[in-house]
Amino acid sequence: MVVAQTQVKRASRMAMGLPCGRRVPRGSERWYLLRVRERAEDATCEKLLRLVPRDILTDCFCIKKERWFKRGGAWSLQTIPAYRGYAFAVTSDPAALYKQLAGTNAHAELCGADGRAWMPLSPAAQTWFARSMDERHVLRGSTAVIEDGILHVTEGPLMGQEAHVRDVDRHRRRCMVDVGDGALGGFSELMAIDVPIKT
């Protein structure tokens, strides 16, 4: 007797575990991942925005996030790169961007999948980042309270996303946020959260 095996096709992944979207028709503006020099993410983005025509590269940025640090007994928020050594390029023509990058000395490489068919960030991830970041591309920390075991976010980008927040670490002031459906290319992001009150 032969038992049929069902294979579940997993969503493709970019570097850092971010989910890929599908290839899109030319002319559709999407976010693509760039590999850049670590600790030179911002400088590389600024350079590319000067060198590459805006009809090819609409925007280029490094996503950052706030993180709580404790030094000398005092807590403070610091901003760090969310993905060290990576940046995001917004373009509707990744092939033209690839050619432009090859002609610069900016040390930026378009991350690809499936040969030279560059894969954009998944729409769900792109939408979540766009909604959660501020105008400077920073994922800010949130403030919350826990009342009767239920998390209520009172301030910050996680407002309204309580159902996706898990593993709240009040001591380290951080939590994991599930973005999208894991079977459809979801991912988790570590976010800063301050929960001073728990009842």
UniProtKB/TrEMBL annotation:
It comes from Collinsella ihumii. GO terms for biological process: DNA-templated transcription elongation. This is NusG-like N-terminal domain-containing protein. InterPro entries: NGN_dom_sf.
